[in-house]
Design brief:
By secondary structure, the protein is of the alpha/beta class. Helix content is 43%, strand content 15%. α4 links the parallel β2 and β3. It is globular, with a radius of gyration of 21 Å.
Length: 271
């Protein structure tokens, strides 16, 4: 992990965003909703440009709705160019352009999903991808009951957010390199977020201190939910192992991490 102080980098990101909103024009009111929507797309696209190669250092705020899915395609292009590691969260389904880039990536891919159905079987089958779906070990747990009670008075929110464990939108490109990229904001990585919703997104280049914060939080959640996910797999498949829970007294357990296979590739992604 990078050891520099986080403060100056966070201030840089904050200042860039503040400058953007101070510069934002206030469009004239439109009586026709369709004209208002078109105007909104035109203004946001003029105001915030999607970064394109060759990428420079700094922060690129991107607002939506936009007339095209150029923000989605920018994410897909950055994923396609990753060298060693990509980390992503998926509260909802990913746009096909981004998912295809993840499937074809030469980097190790770590994905944290809100549930299994948000990505296709092809991404699960990719040998370089390690995915974890969030969830409770016990669906009747105290936490689950509390969340249901909390959302019950809000009928729309209850329907939309019931059972949502992961709602962050993050893509990290080569986060441990000298030129990391963070993509984060309110926008889902989807057509709807790009073209229809009022959303925001930050493309952050070459800010290792900021990237460290995102990577630390991502791996904290990933490791937590990966354990739960695997527990559910074992339970569903009724796998029993009389040696489970005991340490191997030999060094045989290290073999998968040094035999050129999936586990070794995943381990080396952190170096």
């Amino acid at each position: 992990m990078h050891s520099s102080l986080v403060g100056p980098a966070v201030n840089s990101v904050s200042n860039s965003t503040s400058e953007l909103f101070r510069a934002s024009p206030v469009p004239p009111p439109a009586h026709d909703p369709s004209k208002s929507a078109v105007l909104s797309r035109v203004e946001t696209q003029k105001l915030t440009k999607v970064p394109a190669a060759p990428y420079g250092s700094g922060v690129y705020p991107v607002l939506s709705p936009r007339a095209t899915i150029e923000a989605v395609d920018a994410c897909a292009a950055l994923v396609a160019g990753a060298q060693k590691m990509v980390c992503f969260t998926a509260p909802f389904a990913l746009h096909a352009h981004i998912e295809n880039a993840l499937i074809e990536s030469a980097a190790e891919v770590f994905g944290l999903l809100n549930k299994h159905g948000v990505v296709t079987k092809a991404l699960y089958a990719a040998p370089h991808a390690l995915l974890a779906a969030a969830g409770a070990l016990d669906e009747k747990s105290v936490l689950e009951a509390w969340q249901s009670r909390l959302l019950e008075p809000l009928k729309g929110e209850s329907l939309h957010h019931s059972g949502v464990f992961i709602h962050t939108k993050i893509i990290l490109i080569d986060p441990l390199s000298d030129h990391p990229v963070v993509i984060s904001g309110s926008a889902n990585f989807s057509n709807n977020s790009s073209c229809n919703n009022d959303e925001n997104q930050l493309f952050i280049f070459d800010e290792p201190e900021v990237t460290d914060v995102y990577l630390g939080e991502f791996m904290r959640m990933f490791d937590h939910y990966y354990f739960r996910d695997q527990m559910k797999v074992v339970e569903a498949q009724k796998i029993t192992d009389p040696k489970a829970g005991f340490l191997d007294e030999t060094d045989a357990w290290t073999a998968p991490y040094f035999n050129g296979g999936d586990r070794e590739r995943a381990r080396l992604a952190f170096f």
